[in-house]
Amino acid sequence: MNFDLSDEQVQIRDTFARFCDERIAPRAAEIDEAHAFPRELFGEVAALGFFGLRYPPESGGLGLDLISLCLALEEISRGSMSLAGCVTMQSLMGTKFLEMLGNADIKQRLFAPALRGEKIGGICMTEPNAGSDLGGIATSARKVDGGYLLKGQKMWVTSAPVADFFTVFARAGAEKKLTIFLVEKDFKGLIIGKAIAKMGVWDTCVNSSPKSASSPGRWRSAALAAPSKRRSAMPASASSSASRSTAIRRSS
Amino acid sequence: MATDLEAARQLVHYAAWLKDNDKPHHKEAAMAKLFASEAAAGICDKAARVLASYGYSMEYAVQRHLRDIRFTLIGGGTSEILKLVIAKELSA
User: Fold this and answer.
1) In angstroms, rounded to a whole number, what is the distance separating the alpha carbons of residues A185 and A177?
2) Which among A28, A70, A201 is the nearest to B13, CB-wise?
3) Which of A245, B18, B32, B54 is deepest in the core (most CB within 10 A)?
4) What are A152-168's pLDDT values in tens digits?
């Protein structure tokens, strides 16, 4: 058995350890008290390559392994759990489905800037009546001219008040297939709710806010779908096309 | 406290190593998340006790760690859900 970290893993750990000591730790109390999205540090984390750490080089990432991510994240978390919360969601959830399924337009307009920390992506799974159980998701999607109409409410959406786009889980069509949609913040009918006051992890303070659809709540989004093979919290596959966004479908 | 921290780190790295090497990791990932978050919550609680009244004061960082760490018992699967996942994997 070999428990040694590779030279590359050691370098990642040491880089983020130094970043923690020099940049995060001195401001951790301020982040906790301000309850504001730590935008400056968010950008510095992006500059270190964290958001693309797990993505392959052809997607603009560093193509590193999961242990490297764990090492980097342990150091960020040591400094501030609030910062760790929002940067983790950006790297593992907020951008994941765009990397997997986005077309060239989505990759260039949303994904690439998100890796640079210039755009913020949120993920909308949890609902008021569906927490850990993805099967309980009730948000509906109906095909309409030019896209899909989404109706429902989401909550605990990390970075929601500052996010530029959202990956939204909803049930599409008469067969109610669990499907993933891309919703941009300027889509008609999208309402971002109030930030939830919490006892800690204030990245998310900003983060966690209920999202409901508008009058009476609808998001328009384009769509397309393909079945997925994976189960687990992040299933999906997709394709893209249609006007401005992508949707993904999996058989539930 | 230090032993719990080291055990948590090893379990997390092992689960990550399994994933990196394309080996089954569902059970180990759930165990790592369960153990690491519970260990961290316990460590923060003990750290606050070591510092006694300072551990209860807003002037020191330990209170922030104590508040923040509770998030890890919930986000990404509560400890209770993780136990269900582990039990299912054991009986599979």
Assistant:
1) 24
2) A70
3) A245
4) 888 888 898 899 999 99
